[in-house]
Design a protein that fits this description.
heterodimer, A: 107 residues, mainly beta, three-stranded antiparallel β-sheet, globular, B: mainly beta
Chain lengths: 107, 118
């Protein structure tokens, strides 16, 4: 099973700042099969990025994904108040696993 | 518009059984694999099971293999998960999602809570 480790566990930033979230895999993941989700309390996850760098429909262009192999990142260029949430990475190339999440908090 | 509505959650004793349903609309149901993903209280996401569009192929997480069975009724646009021999660690919100083993999940239901407790 591919284990995904997200860092940091919590990231405290202010609106307008840039956020970079990391997802490291225990073995190589095809870029085709790496996704990022946003989840707010009491809501289902929302797909942000698939294929490591493709934005899902309706996702603002301040969200971008990058990386390959075992190291992937989600970047939010300028944080908006509605971006403070928990973010998960997922790999779906070898069974399906999720990272443990990064909480993005107001500073 | 894609809609996924889960039903069937509730309180069940350890060792008991429960069947969850997910009614789908807004897309050609038979063209898509479907999956169940769960989230224990305060924890992260865990993929549980998936089924192909025809229903002919199913796949499971090791944590539920042999206890859970995923199925679908394409005449009713509904996917199910039969959960047997439930344990306290199966307590979670269960989401159905449009997509299968090699998909990201762009559409999710609202989730249904399963609590396993005596």
């Amino acid at each position: 099973e591919i284990v995904l480790t997200q860092s940091p566990g919590t990231l405290s930033l202010s609106p307008g700042e840039r956020a970079t979230l990391s997802c490291r895999a225990s073995q190589s993941v095809s870029s085709t099969y790496l996704a990022w989700y946003q989840q707010k309390p009491g809501q289902a996850p929302r797909l942000l990025i698939y294929g490591a760098s493709s934005r899902a429909a309706g996702i603002p262009d301040r969200f971008s994904g990058s990386g390959s192999g075992t190291d992937f990142a989600l970047t939010i260029s300028r944080l908006e108040p509605e971006d403070f949430a928990v973010y998960y990475c997922q790999q779906y190339g070898s069974s399906i696993t999720f990272g443990q999440g990064t909480r993005l908090d107001f500073k | 518009e894609v809609q996924l509505l889960e039903f069937g959650g509730g309180l069940v004793q350890p060792g008991g059984s429960l069947r969850l349903s997910c009614a789908a609309s807004g897309f050609t149901f038979t063209a898509y694999a479907m999956s169940w993903v769960r989230q224990a209280p305060g924890k992260g996401l865990e993929w549980v099971a998936g089924i192909s569009g025809s229903g002919g192929t199913t796949y499971y997480a090791d944590s539920v293999k042999g206890r859970f069975t995923i199925s679908r009724d394409n005449s009713k646009n509904t996917v199910y998960v039969q959960m047997n021999s439930l344990r306290a660690e199966d307590t979670a919100v269960y989401y159905c999602a449009k997509g299968g083993r090699y998909d990201s999940y762009g559409d999710w239901g609202q989730g249904t809570l399963v609590t396993v407790s005596s």
